[in-house]
Structures are given as structure tokens and as C-alpha cells.
Write a structure and sequence with these properties.
By secondary structure, the protein is mainly alpha-helical. The protein is built from 10 helices and 3 strands, in the order αααββααααβααα. The chain has one domain. A 3-stranded antiparallel sheet has the order 2-1-3. α4 runs antiparallel to α5, α4 crosses α6 and α5 crosses α6. It is globular, with a radius of gyration of 20 Å.
Length: 305
């Protein structure tokens, strides 16, 4: 894979950082001029007024949050992980075995954390509503932001893992057991599944403008990845994110937009759920079935691919 990396001119990294700053400024301007408060409030209200009984929904959210927290515990207890990374200085791929907090540099781990934060915050909001107390505005913003980010990143992650990462991994004839451990399953499969179930039982009132949170999340992650490579761990978890690559500015922006696009897909699915819960459930079930994979293919299939 190293020979496939197409590095640009020495100034390419500067162009990437410039594009990142420009998009960040434009995003900040849009947030400053666009009043999202009514949309956030309406979406947050729909979280505590679901289609299913709120008590049952609260129970479901606690279960989902528990699964996510258990995955984080598993990441610390399971021992060293396995990552094929791009070393910043050498510009070469290397196989690393991170432990503890080192595992949280991946986009998948951020997907898991946003999933947990949504289910925890929405559980607290539901509990407050059931007890007759007002849900504070900061909590409304938190759960809406985390839901949007979790949906976009979870469905994007599941799609990339199923259709890009796993096929390459199977073709390499490497041991694939590590990518089907419990916490990996939670990041790559269960996060999207749990959110799809949430959409069906809640029928949230979403708005396309909320996709701006996804773009913001993408920019924040890219900034983190660059800081980590330059001043932290010295490597990129994903080779394509290196700012010195020829098309890095477009790749960086593409990642942020991709998260927003997948949230938009969830938004459209939620509209179907609101119109007809059975049709919406069918659409989401089909979508999830196409992007999750809980086990490797049979050895014969893997060998013949």
C-alpha cells in the first residue's frame, strides 16, 4: 500500500491546513447567522415525546448506553489492539498495537463515544421529563448534537468497514479475529443498529440544517488527527488523512461532507418512519443489513476472494 501513496508538492500540507481553516471560518459564520435554536428545540422535544411509551424508550436507552460503556471497558481490558498506521516522518505503513487511551485516536472510537453520549444524555432528559422536571437547554443541545453526529458517523463507519476495510483485510490473509471483538462490533455494527432502532421507536423530528454539526465533527476530528501526527503519536490512523498527500484538501473536506450525507440519509429515513412506521422500519432494516457484518466469511470464501 505504501507505493500507492501519492504525495503532492512540499506546500500541499499548507494548502490542506488553509482549506481546513477556510471551511472552519465559513462553518462558524453559518452557525452565527443561521438560527438553529427552533430546530434544536423541536428535535429535542421529539426525543421526550416518542412514538413508543417514554418509559419503555428510557429503558431501551439505558440498555444501549450500557452496551456502549461496556465496549469502552472492553477496550481497556482486552489488551493491545491492532492498527495499520502511516508513520508521519517515515511516510511508511506500520503495524502498531495500541493500549488504553491510545485506542481512542480512531474515527470509530469517536463514533462509539458520540453514541454513548447521545444515549446517556437522552436518558437523563427522558428521566427529567418523566419526573416532571424541565429539561435544561444545554442538555437539549447536547443530545441533539450527539444524535446527529452519532448517526452520521455510525452509518458512515459501518459502510466503510463493511465495504472497504473488511474486504482488504480478508484479501491480505491476516488474522481477522481482532476486528470482530466485542468493542469492534459495537463501533462498526451495533452503533448504527441501535440508532436505527431509536429512530423507529422515537420517530424524531429532524431537520436537514442539523447536518452542519456533522461537518463540524469532521473538522474537529481532522484537526485532532493532524495534531496527533505532528505533536503526539507520530502517525495517522488512516493513510488517506495525511495532509501532505496530493489530494489531501479535498479528502479532508470529503470526510466532513460524508458524515453529513449519511445523517441526511437517516433524516430521510426518519421522514418515512413519521409517515408510516412499518415502511420506515423496513427501509432502516434493509439499510443496516447492507452495512453491518458481524462475522468473517467462511474460510473457503475468504481464500477464494
Amino acid at each position: 500500500m505504501a507505493e500507492q501513496l501519492d504525495y503532492g508538492k512540499p506546500g500541499t500540507a499548507g494548502q490542506t491546513f488553509g482549506a481546513l481553516a477556510l471551511v472552519g471560518v465559513l462553518l462558524a459564520y453559518v452557525f452565527a447567522t443561521l438560527d438553529l435554536a427552533p430546530q434544536i428545540a423541536e428535535t429535542a422535544q421529539s426525543f421526550i415525546e416518542p412514538t413508543a411509551p417514554l418509559g419503555a424508550v428510557l429503558g431501551w436507552r439505558l440498555i444501549a448506553a450500557g452496551f456502549g460503556i461496556a465496549a469502552v471497558v472492553s477496550m481497556f481490558r482486552v489488551g493491545p489492539g491492532t492498527m495499520e498506521v502511516l508513520m508521519h516522518e517515515k511516510r511508511e505503513l506500520a503495524l502498531l498495537h495500541p493500549v488504553g487511551f491510545e485506542k481512542f485516536v480512531t474515527f470509530s472510537s469517536w463514533t462509539l463515544l458520540s453514541n454513548i453520549l447521545y444515549f446517556v444524555s437522552s436518558s437523563v432528559a427522558a428521566g427529567l421529563h418523566l419526573s416532571g422536571r424541565e429539561v435544561p437547554s444545554w442538555l437539549e443541545v447536547t443530545q441533539v448534537c450527539m444524535f446527529v453526529v452519532a448517526c452520521g458517523s455510525a452509518f458512515l463507519t459501518a459502510t466503510i468497514v463493511r465495504h472497504v476495510i473488511l474486504p482488504k483485510l480478508f484479501e491480505s490473509n491476516r488474522d481477522t479475529a481482532f476486528i470482530f471483538l466485542y468493542h469492534e462490533q459495537m463501533m462498526h455494527n451495533l452503533a448504527a443498529l441501535f440508532l436505527a432502532i431509536e429512530v423507529v421507536i422515537v420517530a424524531p423530528k429532524l431537520h436537514p440544517q442539523l447536518a452542519l454539526f456533522c461537518i463540524g465533527m469532521g473538522l474537529v476530528y481532522v484537526c485532532f488527527a493532524y495534531l496527533f501526527a505532528y505533536k503526539g503519536g507520530g502517525f495517522y490512523v488512516y493513510s488517506f488523512i495525511d495532509p501532505r498527500l496530493k489530494y489531501a484538501p479535498f479528502t479532508m473536506m470529503g470526510l466532513a461532507v460524508a458524515i453529513a450525507v449519511f445523517f441526511t440519509g437517516v433524516h430521510l429515513a426518519s421522514l418515512i418512519v413519521v409517515a408510516n412506521i412499518w415502511a420506515g422500519a423496513l427501509v432502516l432494516a434493509l439499510w443496516v443489513s447492507l452495512i453491518v457484518q458481524f462475522r468473517p466469511p467462511e474460510r473457503e470464501t475468504q481464500a477464494s476472494s
